[in-house]
TrEMBL record:
It comes from Mastacembelus armatus (zig-zag eel). Belongs to the nicastrin family. This is Nicastrin. The keyword Membrane applies. Residues 40-214 form the Nicastrin small lobe domain. InterPro entries: Ncstrn_small, Nicastrin.
Length: 701
C-alpha cells in the first residue's frame, strides 16, 4: 500500500567536492517509525507438519486496532470498514480462544502484536501441550497402553497448545515501554472511533516482516536444502540442536569410545533448554534453570568429597540440550552409547538420578518419581528402593523432605525416559509436584525470575544483588545438598562423609542471578575466556536454537561446571590452550580438558590475571540421530527444524484513504501523459522552436 521512499538529494551535489558537505534527509525516516524491540514467533517443522507464524515476502500491512475485549473481535472479523487489521493484544487477551478466532478469520487479519507485561499475570498460562513429548518418551502403546498419551496423569493441564499451531500471519511480542505507548497513542489519535462517528483518514497502520523460507515439513525442507543448482545454494531450514555438557568425578578416556571395563557410572541429569511462543524469549526459570542450577551446586558440593575419598562408582553429570523438542540431547547420548560413539556405553550405566522442576516446592516437599513398568523387574525394583532410601537419608536434618507419589503413575516428561526406551535402568526423577505440574507458566515467557521469586531488596546495586542470598537460593541449596549426598552414597561413598557434603548458598544465589537476571556480571566474567564475554546478555535465552553453533547457556554451563568441579593448574596459557600440561605431554588431553579463563579484575586496573582450569568437562553433540541417518520422517527420534528468514522487523506509519491513493495515482498518470504529449509536440517542432538565423557566407571576423 505504501512503500518506503529512497533518499532524495539534488543531483548537483553528487560530486566529490560536495558529497561530504551535504546531509541528505531520509524520506523513509519521515514516513515510518521503526520498532526496535521485535521478537517474533517463527516457523518450526517436523516429520508431519509445520507450526509457527510468518508474513508475506514483502511483509504484512494492516490498520492498527487495539483489542479491548473478546467481544470487540467482531470489529476485526466482520464489521470494521478498513481491513485487514493489525491487532494489538494486551497479554490477558493472548488466549487460545481469541487467537483461534483470529486464525479462522485470517483474511481480515494482517498480524498480531502482543504487549508483554512488566509483571506476570495472576492466571496461569502455558502455550505448550497438555502432554509434553508424548510421542517420543518411553510410554507408548507397546510399552504400556494404560500409561501412553498421559492417560493416567495429565502433566500440564493448563497447556493450550498455542505454540504448536500454524498461523499464516506474523505474531510479534512488544515490550511494554515507550515504544508501545507510541503505538497506543497513534491508535487513539487516528483509529479509535468516538461516539459512533466514522473514522477519518489518515489511519495508523503497522507493517511486520517475518517471512519464512521453509514450508510443509522437515523432509520437504531438507530435500530443498540438497538442491544445488547454483554456486551458493539456498538453505531454507536447519535442524534444531546444540551440545550436551557432561563431566565425571573420575577422568574417563574420551578418545577411546565405547565400553569401559570395570567402570560403573551413576548419571546425574538435568535439562538446559526451554521455550515459549516467541523464539527469542525463553526464560525457563522453573522448567529448566531450577534443575540445572541445583545439579551444578551439587557437583560443586561433591568436588572435595569425591577427590579425597573416591567412591567405587563414577558420577557422570549430564546437562541435556533440546529436551523440549522430543528429547534431542538425551536421545543423542543414548544413540551414541549404543553405537560406541561416546566415552561409555549403556552397560556402564548403573542408575540415573534426574533433577527436574524443583523451584516451587509446596510444604518443602520433593517428589520421587520412578517408572512402574521397569520396576516389575525385581533387580531394578530393589535398586530403585535403595536409591529412594538414600534420598530419605540424605534429607535427614534438612528443611526439605522427600516422598514418593501415593499412587502408581508414569514418569513425568524427563530425559530418563529415553534411557528406559533402550533398556530397564534403575532411576529416580526428582520434581516439586506429585502429579500435575506446579508450574503454572510451563514453557512460556512468564516462567521467569519473578515467578521463581528471585527478587531483591530495593536500592541494591547489581553487584550487591549478585551477592544477596535470596530465599529461593536458600531453598535450592537444600535441594542440592540432598542430591549431592544421595549421589555420593549411590556411587558407593561412605555415609559418615555425608555431614561434610553441603551445597554453598552463595554459589547458588550467584548462579540464579547470572542465569535469570544478568549474565554479564563480575563473577561470570572471571570464569570464562575473554572471547566469550560478548556472549553474556541479560538474561540468557534458553531456546535450543539450531545445531550450527553452541548457545549461550551451553557455553556458560560448560565453563561454570569446569570451575566448580575442576582444579587450577600452574601452566602457561599456550600449553593450556593446546590441551597439555607441558610441551612433552601427549596423554592428558585424552583424560582432561583445559580452559584458560580471564580471572578476577584487579581493583585498580583492567589487566586480569588469567589462569588455567583442568577438568573432566566435555561437550557432546546434541543433534537428533534422525539427521545423521537422514530419516526425516522418523517416529523414534526428534525431527524438528527451524525455518530460515531474511529479516524480522516492524514499523508503524500513517496510511492515506484508498480514494486519496487512487486520486494521487490518477494525478501522477495525468502528469506523466501530459509530459509525454508536451515532449512529443516539442520534439516534432524542434526545427522551428530551436532554429537560428543562418550566417552569411561572406561573413568575416
Amino acid at each position: 500500500r505504501l512503500v518506503g521512499a529512497s533518499k532524495i538529494c539534488p543531483l548537483l551535489f553528487f560530486t566529490p567536492k560536495f558529497y561530504n558537505e551535504v546531509h541528505c534527509n531520509s524520506v523513509e525516516k519521515k514516513i515510518y517509525v521503526n520498532l526496535n524491540y521485535t521478537v517474533s514467533c517463527v516457523r518450526l517443522l517436523n516429520a508431519t507438519h509445520q507450526i509457527g507464524c510468518q508474513s508475506s515476502l514483502s511483509g504484512n500491512v494492516g490498520v492498527l486496532h487495539v483489542l479491548e475485549s473478546e467481544e470487540n473481535l467482531d470489529w476485526v472479523l466482520h464489521s470494521g470498514p478498513n481491513p485487514p487489521y493489525m491487532v494489538i493484544l494486551e497479554s490477558p487477551l493472548f488466549t487460545r480462544s481469541i487467537m483461534m478466532k483470529l486464525k479462522n478469520g485470517s483474511s481480515r487479519v494482517a498480524g498480531v502484536a502482543v504487549v508483554a507485561p512488566n509483571t506476570n499475570p495472576a492466571a496461569g498460562f502455558s502455550p505448550h501441550t497438555k502432554c509434553p513429548n508424548e510421542n517420543t518418551g518411553v510410554y507408548s502403546v507397546k510399552y504400556d497402553p494404560a500409561m501412553a498419551h498421559c492417560n493416567k496423569t495429565l502433566w500440564n493441564p493448563l497447556g493450550n497448545g498455542l505454540s504448536y499451531e500454524e498461523f499464516d500471519f506474523p505474531i510479534f511480542s512488544l515490550k511494554d515501554d515507550n515504544e508501545t505507548q507510541v503505538i497506543r497513542q497513534c491508535y487513539l489519535d487516528h483509529n479509535r472511533a468516538m461516539n459512533g462517528s466514522s473514522l477519518q483518514y489518515p489511519l495508523c497502520a503497522m507493517q511486520l516482516y517475518s517471512h519464512m523460507s521453509a514450508v510443509t515439513d522437515t523432509a520437504t525442507c531438507m530435500r530443498r536444502n540438497d538442491i544445488n543448482f547454483s554456486i551458493n545454494p539456498e538453505i531454507v531450514c536447519d535442524a534444531l540442536g546444540d551440545y550436551n555438557v557432561w563431566a565425571s568425578t573420575r577422568p574417563l578416556n574420551n578418545t577411546a569410545k565405547g565400553h569401559k571395563m570395570w567402570e560403573s557410572v551413576v548419571i546425574a541429569a538435568a535439562r538446559l533448554d526451554s521455550r515459549s511462543f516467541f523464539f527469542d524469549i525463553a526464560p525457563g526459570a522453573e522448567s529448566g534453570v531450577s534443575g540445572f542450577v541445583t545439579l551444578l551446586a551439587a557437583a560443586h558440593a561433591l568436588r572435595n568429597a569425591t577427590q579425597e575419598a573416591q567412591p567405587n562408582r563414577t558420577i557422570l553429570y549430564t546437562f541435556f540440550q533440546g529436551e523440549t523438542f522430543d528429547y534431542i540431547g538425551s536421545s543423542r547420548m543414548v544413540y551414541d552409547m549404543e553405537n560406541k560413539q561416546f566415552a561409555l556405553d549403556l552397560d556402564n550405566v548403573h542408575s540415573v538420578l534426574e533433577i527436574g522442576q524443583v523451584g516451587l516446592r509446596a510444604d518443602s516437599r520433593l517428589w520421587l518419581h520412578s517408572d512402574p513398568v521397569s520396576r516389575r523387574n525385581n533387580s531394578v525394583n530393589e535398586e530403585v528402593k535403595g536409591l529412594i532410601a538414600k534420598l530419605h537419608s540424605a534429607a535427614t536434618g534438612l528443611s526439605v523432605s522427600v516422598q514418593e507419589p501415593s499412587f502408581s503413575q508414569p514418569l513425568p516428561p524427563s530425559s530418563f525416559q529415553r534411557f528406559l526406551r533402550a533398556r530397564p535402568i534403575p532411576g529416580i526423577v526428582i520434581e516439586d509436584h506429585q502429579s500435575a505440574f506446579t508450574n503454572r507458566f510451563y514453557e512460556s515467557m512468564y516462567d521467569n525470575a519473578e515467578y521463581l521469586n528471585v527478587s531483591y531488596p530495593p536500592n541494591l546495586s547489581p553487584e550487591e544483588q549478585l551477592e544477596f542470598v535470596t530465599d529461593t537460593a536458600k531453598a535450592l541449596t537444600e535441594v542440592a545438598t540432598v542430591v549431592a549426598r544421595a549421589l555420593y552414597t549411590q556411587a558407593g561413598g561412605e555415609e559418615p562423609q555425608l555431614s561434610s557434603i553441603k551445597a554453598d548458598p552463595q554459589i547458588v544465589t550467584q548462579m540464579l542471578y547470572s542465569f535469570l537476571v544478568q549474565s554479564n556480571n563480575s563473577w561470570f566474567q572471571q570464569l570464562i575466556p575473554s572471547d566469550l564475554k560478548s556472549h553474556l546478555s541479560k538474561p540468557p535465552n534458553y531456546y535450543v536454537g539450531v545445531a550450527q553453533q553452541s548457545s549461550e547457556p551451553t557455553l556458560l554451563v560448560q565453563h561454570l561446571l569446569a570451575n566448580l568441579t575442576g582444579r587450577t593448574v600452574n601452566i602457561t596459557q599456550e600449553n593450556c590452550q593446546n590441551q597439555r600440561e607441558d610441551e612433552n605431554d601427549k596423554e592428558s588431553k585424552h583424560m582432561y580438558s583445559y580452559m584458560w579463563v580471564q580471572g578476577v579484575a584487579p581493583p585498580n586496573g583492567t589487566e586480569r590475571e588469567g589462569y588455567c582450569i583442568r577438568s573432566t568437562v566435555r561437550l557432546s553433540k546434541a543433534l537428533s540421530p534422525a539427521f545423521d541417518l537422514r530419516q526425516y520422517t522418523s517416529d523414534d527420534y526428534s525431527t524438528w527444524t527451524e525455518s530460515r528468514w531474511k529479516s524480522i522487523k516492524g514499523r508503524i506509519f500513517l496510511v492515506a484513504s484508498h480514494e486519496l491513493e487512487m486520486l494521487t495515482l490518477g494525478v501522477g498518470v495525468g502528469v506523466l501523459l501530459t509530459s509525454l504529449l508536451l515532449t512529443y509536440i516539442i520534439s516534432s517542432k524542434a526545427d522551428i522552436l530551436f532554429s537560428s538565423g543562418r550566417e552569411p557566407t561572406n561573413a568575416t571576423y
